[in-house]
């Protein structure tokens, strides 16, 4: 029933390893976003996408890639994970149009890089 | 670019009291204002949103006030109860961009 799902819900990765976080939405929304949440920083936008096969950089894209193979799916890829990428990652979706700012969030993925 | 300041970072109130959270923003062209609630271990849940032509909106014990002159947005939880304990975020958006800018959050504790 959940409209935005993320997998995995938690992950431990080693420094220098590759990590892929996945997001799936059933809202039929055009926009999808990846944020990271750190204590004291609120949410910061990493990448976003407004159409399949296209992604855009957000405010903190360094060290991250994104992939949007379909309207429903949006992945965040850490090619070489680093300690500083330990955080909680949230995926969100929103409509195109007047309600673009109403975002629907997934439950988050807690990533720990050791 | 747009800056959003949210206060207080922590707020404790007694059950039945009001809780007020305030955000200030810098861009007068900001068009869309929202409040989100995040419960422990969960994602953000949209509570309420208003456009810039709305000064006040009330829904289910929540009141959002928008003062465009002072660039201030507030959320008032009237008669708070323990189930309201969570982190609350304000969010603002310009008219013509994808971008949503979040405040840093307010940890609300409602004591029984």
Q: Can you describe what's shown?
A:
- The complex is a heterodimer of chains A (114) and B (112).
- Chain A is globular.
- In chain A, strands 2, 4, 5, 6, 9, 10 and 11 form a seven-stranded mixed β-sheet that branches. A four-stranded antiparallel β-sheet of chain A has the order 1-3-8-7, with no helix packed on it.
- Chain A starts with a strand and ends with a strand.
- With 114 residues, chain A is mainly β.
- Chain A has strands at residues 4-7, 10-13, 19-25, 31-38, 42-51, 54-57, 65-67, 73-78, 87-94, 104-105, 109-113.
- In chain A, strand 7 (65-67) and strand 8 (73-78) form a beta hairpin.
- Chain B has 112 residues and is mainly beta.
- In chain B, 0% of the residues lie in helices and 59% in strands.
- Chain B is built from no helices and eleven strands.
- In chain B, strands 2, 4, 5, 9, 10 and 11 form a six-stranded mixed β-sheet that branches. Chain B has a five-stranded antiparallel β-sheet with strand order 1-3-8-7-6, with no helix packed on it.
- In chain B, a hairpin with a 2-residue loop joins strand 6 (56-59) and strand 7.
- The A-B interface holds A 4, 31, 40-43, 45, 48, 50, 56, 90, 92, 100-108 and B 6, 32, 34, 36, 41-46, 49, 89, 91, 93, 98-100, 102-105.
β-sheet strand percentage of chain A: over 45%
Average predicted local confidence, pLDDT of chain B:
92
Listing every helix as H and every strand as E from the N terminus to the C terminus, the arrangement of chain A reads: EEEEEEEEEEE
Number of helices of chain B: 0
Alpha-carbon Rg of chain B, integer: 13 Å
Q: What structural class should be given to the helix and strand makeup of chain B?
A: mainly beta
| Total count of strands of chain B | 11
Portion of residues within helices of chain B: under 10%
Helix content of chain A: under 10%
Spans of chain A of at least 5 consecutive residues whose pLDDT stays below 50 are none
**Major sheet description of chain B:** 6 strands, mixed
Order of helices and strands of chain B: EEEEEEEEEEE
- Rounded to the nearest angstrom, the radius of gyration of chain A is 13 Å
Mean pLDDT of chain A: 93
Beta-strand residue percentage of chain B:
over 45%
- Assembly state here? heterodimer
Broad shape of chain A: globular
What composes the largest sheet of chain A? 7 strands, mixed
Going by helix content, strand content and strand pairing, the class of chain A is mainly beta
* N→C terminal distance of chain B: 41 Å
Please count the beta strands of chain A (DSSP E, at least 2 residues each).
11
